[in-house]
């Protein structure tokens, strides 16, 4: 089946389509693979044509048909281009996974470059731009398309490091794992997700936060214990929730995390 015919088939209501930001590597690429193997058509956002093409070749080797958009999550023009693509091709978006993110404070679990009192304002602003403001803006842009789907699903990639409850508990496993900018950006994303879930209550669209785990990616670093395959599982689970699934939750591998 050609790309054109596959998209036409989805437009006719046969199958689902997903958009995954930062989807050309790591957790995003593996999420696209796992969704594709479930029959979902993944569209990945990549920062260059070359990165997108390499990711598509990787997926094709796994038997997954996909498409790629040149996409920088911080660029409003790219948000509009994504909207135009999904509107023109299928008229809706079944699944949005806000996967793209940055960690600018050293290697997680190995070094922390800054304390709250020494954190440069630029690091804080750049982290929030990618991890919070960009996914909020993209979701606002694409939400009408997600709401046009029979069962829209939005997955915001958070982290256990966004949990205020666990950061405040001296007995928790993350009590000493402090990265001020990254953690704060994920806490903000959690809060916004809760508010959006409240707005969407009673609809067929669900939005949840996913903690993928500490995963062996470029961001996760060398000390991470989880494989990329396992790191994608929570996103896939929340992207494919049934009608009676949760809305406004915070999960890892099916387990609920405290906000």
Account of the protein in words:
This protein has 259 residues and is α/β, with parallel strands linked by helices. The chain has a single domain, classed as Rossmann fold (3-Layer(aba) Sandwich), CATH 3.40.50.720. 43% of the residues lie in helices and 13% in strands. The protein is built from eight helices and eight strands; from the N terminus they run αβαβαβαβαβααβαββ. It has helices at residues 3-11, 26-37, 49-61, 76-89, 121-147, 164-167, 180-200, 228-239; strands at residues 17-20, 41-46, 67-70, 95-98, 153-157, 206-210, 250-252, 255-256. Strands 3-2-1-4-5-6-7-8 form an eight-stranded mixed sheet, sandwiched between helices. Helix 3 links the parallel strand 2 and strand 3. Helix 2 packs across helix 8 (228-239), helix 4 (76-89) runs parallel beside helix 5 and helix 5 (121-147) runs parallel beside helix 7 (180-200). The N and C termini lie far apart (44 Å). The mean pLDDT is 95.
Q: Report the sheet with the most strands, covering strand number, pairing sense and barrel closure.
A: 8 strands, mixed
Beta-strand content estimate: 5-15%
- State the order of secondary-structure elements, H for helix, E for strand: HEHEHEHEHEHHEHEE
Classified in CATH, the superfamily is NAD(P)-binding Rossmann-like Domain
CATH topology: Rossmann fold
What is the class in the CATH system? Alpha Beta
Rounded Rg? 18 Å
**Structural domain count:** 1
**What's the total count of β strands?**
8
